[in-house]
Amino acid sequence: MSSQSSQPSRSARPLPPFDPGDPLGIDDLLDPEDLAVRDTVRDWSARRVLPEIADWYERGEVPVRELARELGALGALGMPLEGYGCAGSSAVQYGLACLELEAADSGIRSLVSVQGSLAMYAIHRFGSEEQKQRWLPGMAAGEIIGCFGLTEPDHGSDPAGMRTHAKRDGSDWVLSGRKMWITNGSVAGVAVVWAQTDEGIRGFAVPTGSPGFSAPLIKHKWSLRASVTSELVLDEVRLPADAVLPGATGLKGPLSCLTHARYGIVWGAMGAARASFEAALEYAKTREQFDRPIGGFQLTQAKLADKAVELHKGILLAHHLGVRMDAGRLRPEQVSFGKLNNVREAIEICRTARTILGANGISLEYPVMRHATNLESVLTYEGTVEMHQLVLGKALTGLDAFRG
């Protein structure tokens, strides 16, 4: 067979143009359904959130119930879950949705993550069929908002030490305790609350109208201002026996929920980073100093190049983890890898973008400082930097550094 071919070699084919918005050609990894999901959420965010978000952030108020119903109509609540009105989307599609939502604001992505990846996921995976039928269809539609009560005032990174407890009283359960930093708490119709029992840590689906339950709003935040954050107070809340989630005993239940939510953060953080990077890139091409655009100076180009590398590496990492999740091969340690890297790099991208915008970088006319302050919360919740470092350290060495 001749080594010569009448067909042009692959190397001789014309290359596609370089796309500054997708310099690595990551879109080539996405199928048409992935792109359709991404574009639908992107269009909704541009139409519904971006025109209002600076005002919501400045006022510290957001129309959560209205947005939840709209997100439910999009199919964005409980996306990867099957049945009960949920979309049954792939993990990659859910990740793309998180990226686009957080490109608008971390608070909007948090609304979706807590609703779907924590509250709905807990009921879907660990709840009884009756609990699933009672709660999930309304939650998928955004008619019922859920929250997830694990963190306490004195127990964040070490949930095993939680003080919230539930005791049996005849056939009932009686819950007492406090939970802190709870997204959606003050607007929720159901709270998934984790508590110590004589049988170990158990989860409960708590109707928020139950006597003894209250969810005071946490105010005076400088981060995630376009998000409802609350304390949950349970003062001898009496629940029937069927309120307990039958499929979970011990910490594995809530921790598996956190793994699911952390996966969304791996994608979402890159949305905040992308929005900030794009704002800085556009600014650098139009802002003039010394008689030319600042994007023409070497130092500015170095900043843009370095942060483009980290941004798109982070998106590639998120996609890789999504493919593994869809294949049933994603380990919690790998999610820690993604959360640790992507949130940390996203903050640095935002900070560098702020320097390119100069004084304008602190203005709400641009998204950069809003994303940077939001990411300070994202860096802490669902596991701090230090906790994910120790998760990876244990996985790498086989030695547990959590307890001395």
UniProtKB/TrEMBL annotation:
Keyword flag Transit peptide: yes
InterPro entries, per the entry: Acyl-CoA_Oxase/DH_mid-dom (IPR006091), Acyl-CoA_Oxase/DH_mid-dom_sf (IPR046373), AcylCo_DH-like_C (IPR036250), AcylCo_DH/oxidase_C (IPR009075), AcylCoA_DH/ox_N (IPR013786), AcylCoA_DH/ox_N_sf (IPR037069), AcylCoA_DH/oxidase_NM_dom_sf (IPR009100), Glutaryl-CoA_DH_mitochondrial (IPR052033)
Keywords tagged on the record: FAD, Flavoprotein, Oxidoreductase, Transit peptide
Keyword Flavoprotein attached: yes
Residue intervals of the Acyl-CoA dehydrogenase/oxidase C-terminal domain: 250-396
Positions of the Acyl-CoA oxidase/dehydrogenase middle domain: 147-237
Cofactor entry: FAD
Species the sequence originates in: Streptomyces polyrhachis
Name the record gives this protein: Acyl-CoA dehydrogenase family protein
Alphabetized PANTHER family for the sequence: GLUTARYL-COA DEHYDROGENASE, MITOCHONDRIAL
Stretch list, region Disordered: 1-26
Domain Acyl-CoA dehydrogenase/oxidase N-terminal: from-to ranges: 32-143
Family classification: Belongs to the acyl-CoA dehydrogenase family.
Signal peptide (UniProt feature, chain positions): none
Sequence ranges of Low complexity compositional bias: 1-13
Stretches that traverse the bilayer: none
